[in-house]
Write a structure and sequence with these properties.
The chain is α+β, with helices and mostly antiparallel strands. It has helices spanning 9-20, 26-33, 37-42, 60-69, 104-107, and strands spanning 23-24, 50-52, 55-59, 79-80, 83-84.
């Protein structure tokens, strides 16, 4: 039985460089996050991104950070042997992580767009 040949160091370095330099457009990020490009555009000031001149792009790490910012972990219900328990008291909940995550209300636009008459 022969073992598959290990990739060369040069091939491995080329793979890592190509993938670390990959950037995504607003439309690609919206597709990855399953949202509309308009959401990304409206909240651009609050989202991590790369800006070169007028060009906006995102790298893979920034896309992961955006996903983490909008992750929801429901801690309000804990499964008990006889069914579901109601909301926990504040002292029963685990301590919140030290990193600050933006709430949806903080990034949602305050009012709708104004239309030109």
């Amino acid at each position: 039985m022969t073992t598959p040949a290990a990739p060369s160091v040069e091939a491995l370095i080329a793979y890592l460089v190509d993938n670390s330099l990959r950037t995504y457009s607003i439309a690609e990020v919206a597709d990855l996050l399953n949202c509309k490009p308009r959401f990304i555009e409206d909240n651009l000031k609050k989202l991590p991104h790369i800006k070169a001149g007028r060009s906006i792009s995102f790298d893979a790490d920034q896309v992961r950070r955006i996903k983490a910012m909008h992750r929801v972990n429901p801690l309000d219900a804990v499964e008990e042997p006889d069914g579901l328990k109601g909301p926990q008291q504040p002292e029963e909940r685990e301590a919140a992580p030290s990193a600050r995550h933006l709430a949806l209300a903080e990034i949602r636009p305050a009012a709708g767009r104004r239309r030109a008459n």
